[in-house]
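stage 2 :: seqdesign
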């Protein structure tokens, strides 16, 4: 009995698919990132570093780092817990939990951001 390849495609087809996947990654991930850096550095490094002295910029950077420092461990903890619960147990509310996890994939981040701005924006009156 000979060992069989997990896929039936030829090596050429596999290379083509890998190349296509890498190109999509470059197109959707690296190009926008490059555009952000190019726009930030359009007027030169001096202007970029000078803008980092602005109190608003420092406040935004600090807020971003604090949010990331809180969100990453919490997302890791709750994500692993939810995955463990969903895969190991059948319980009431399981389908609601799965729907709650799937919600960010169904709702555009732009729409979700707009909802947060409308809910918590400065001009919103309670």
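stage 2 :: out
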């Amino acid at each position: 009995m000979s060992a069989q390849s997990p896929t039936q495609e030829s090596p050429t087809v596999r290379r083509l698919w890998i190349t296509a996947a890498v190109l999509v990654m470059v197109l959707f991930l690296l190009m926008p990132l490059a555009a952000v850096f190019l726009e930030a550095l359009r007027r030169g490094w001096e202007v970029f570093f000078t803008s980092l002295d602005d109190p608003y910029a420092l406040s935004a950077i600090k807020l971003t780092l604090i949010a990331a420092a809180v969100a990453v461990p919490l997302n890791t903890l709750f994500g692993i817990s939810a995955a463990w619960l969903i895969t190991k147990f059948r319980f009431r509310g399981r389908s609601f939990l799965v729907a709650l996890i799937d919600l960010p994939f169904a709702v555009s981040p732009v729409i979700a951001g707009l909802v947060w701005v409308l809910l918590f924006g400065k001009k919103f009156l309670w």
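stage 3 :: structure notes
- The chain has five helices and no strands.
- The two ends are 73 Å apart (CA to CA).
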